[in-house]
Specification:
alpha/beta; globular
């Protein structure tokens, strides 16, 4: 098969699809990623061939300007579910400008299958034009895709009408890597596929290989706020987390912080090791708990490792990942900005995750549930059958 992967201009929307792309390649199929310049680095990191269409949108710069020096949670609070229809508003109008170029590329590539994330609607138009099935894949807990589709119907109204369609086409398959117990009730049903972590490319640090169990401590806690939270004025939040965890006895804290934020972060407690960002799947095997922002990649990777999680959400679906983990008993979420900035609530939450065995038990059950889901290689077999019958 020839598979065309089409992605929204957000690199973290591509990375959850990488294991399926690898499984397709391993089965002998050709895979080509197409997207704006914003995602080409992530594709290269995954070893995937790619074509860039459209200029870099620099969505981070747009968002930082709107924040006015505050974190997203401080500026906007928790969004209502229906407000998630605005996700994509920064790039969806520009999508129409490059649609002809996507169609030209697709006609040249002649795919048998189109694969995309759940809110990239160019994929649906391309699949309709070429008469090939479209497969979309969720990232994790999904409050977004059903909401954004209504906005997509509006943005693509003229394109759809020109083609004599009554509305945006639907994907032939919606793959869902989120374990059923964690998924948001009421979402469009999806086809299960096991979540396989891919958190970017990187080397296994020498210190981690030689010191996998920590510096003689009984437990290790990872703190990772993803690739954007610090850029979104999140350094004070990280500083508070590390100050809070500095008082935990017999605990080593590993905090992923890019070099550019180290000076602003300042001095950290003696039990904290500040490290360069490293693919989380290399790090979490030595940890007892994780503190993070609720991004799907971090939440799902920690779930694969069966770790209790403290979620400090900032925007979009991060709140719903926190909700879901708390609901199944595998995590605690603090979504009030003032409480996130106080050491005591953060310290108490992490201490509870470490000391109450119920959280470890629930996290272990979540890990086992994920392990029973069909692997990406098994899903490839189903996709081959889908294309054969199309």
């Amino acid at each position: 098969m020839r598979v065309l992967m089409i992605n929204t201009p957000v690199s973290t929307h591509l990375t959850p699809l990488v294991p399926l792309a690898w499984a397709l390649r391993a089965a002998g199929h050709d895979v080509l990623v197409v997207g704006r310049e914003d995602v080409l680095g992530a594709a290269a990191s995954a070893g995937l061939n790619a074509v860039g269409i459209g200029d870099r949108l620099k969505l981070d710069d747009m968002l930082i300007e709107r924040l006015g020096g505050k974190r997203p949670l401080q500026s906007w609070g928790r969004p209502a579910l229906e407000q998630l229809s605005n996700v994509g508003s920064l790039w969806m109008p520009q999508t129409l400008d490059v649609l002809p170029a996507y169609l030209d590329l697709a006609r040249d590539f002649r795919p048998d299958l189109v694969l995309s994330d759940p809110i990239e609607f160019i994929s649906l138009i391309v699949g309709e034009e070429l008469g090939v099935p479209v497969v979309q894949q969720r990232w994790g807990v999904d409050p977004i895709s059903d909401q954004v589709r209504s906005a997509g119907e509006t943005w693509f109204k003229d394109v759809v009408a020109e083609r004599g369609l009554s509305g945006l086409p639907r994907a032939a398959v919606l793959l869902d890597p989120c374990p059923p117990s964690l998924q948001l009730a009421g979402t469009t049903p999806g086809t299960p596929m096991r979540y396989v972590p891919f958190n970017g490319n990187g080397r296994l640090p020498e210190w981690l290989r030689r010191d996998a169990r920590g510096r003689g401590t009984a437990r290790r806690v990872a703190v990772s706020l993803g690739g954007r939270t610090l850029a979104y004025n999140g350094v004070p939040l990280m500083r508070n987390i590390l100050d809070a965890l500095g008082a935990l006895p017999a605990t080593e804290v590993l905090a992923t912080v890019e070099e550019e934020y180290r000076e602003a972060l300042g001095e950290v407690p003696g039990n904290v090791r500040v490290i360069d960002p490293v693919p989380l799947h290399l790090l979490l095997g030595s940890c007892s708990a994780v503190v993070h922002h609720g991004g799907s990649g971090t939440a799902m990777t920690a779930s694969v490792f069966g770790l209790p999680q403290l979620v400090l959400p900032q925007l979009a679906d991060q709140f719903w990942h926190g909700d879901a983990l708390a609901r199944v008993g595998a995590g605690i979420t603090i979504e009030d900005a003032a409480r996130q900035d106080e050491p005591e609530p953060v310290r108490e939450a992490v201490a509870t995750l470490l000391e109450d065995p119920a959280y470890g038990k629930a996290a272990g059950e979540l890990r086992e549930e994920i392990a029973t889901m069909p692997s990406p290689s098994r899903v490839v077999t189903d996709l081959e059958s889908l294309v054969a019958s199309a």
